[in-house]
Fold YceI family protein.
Amino acid sequence: MTKTKWAVDYAHSTIDFTVKHMMISKVKGSFQNFEAEIEADPQDLTDAKVSFIVDARSIHTKNDDRDNHLRSADFLDVEQYPNITFVSKSVTKAGDNDYNVTGDLTIHGVTKEETFKVTFEGISKNPMSGAETAGFSAEGTVKRSNYGLTWNAALETGGVLVGDEIKFTVELEASKAE
């Protein structure tokens, strides 16, 4: 296979996150709206180019009050920083179908280099569209404090309300672009 552009199937793709809450549990959420560009040979992702633009306003945790707080200046400040972006810089093979994708992640106006673990899940012909469809899974953990997201509240037990580490998980289906 050769390097080609892939069109993301947004109905079958997600960007989710998990963060520690009150030091005793986890809150899960997702970003409902995003765009991704992928140029890759799925049999060898080492020369892949990947970019994401995530609409920070689309954050969803199943709680309107919390979602509005996350959109506020205490956290994402979506009025000033409406997008979260990722642009790949390098891809290295880490196993049979596993890769490390390193790139520039920008959150809250701060750009840092981050590495995400990506697994190529395979290719199958979509029986509905007839298109050759590839699947990818990715995960990575970032420290929100590195991006200026430092709001928190102290707990009586000595911990904090919101954990510093955010685990992102991405599931993508994409078909060859026409």
Remarks:
- The CA atoms of residues 3 and 41 lie 4 Å apart.
- The radius of gyration is 17 Å.
- The mean pLDDT is 88.
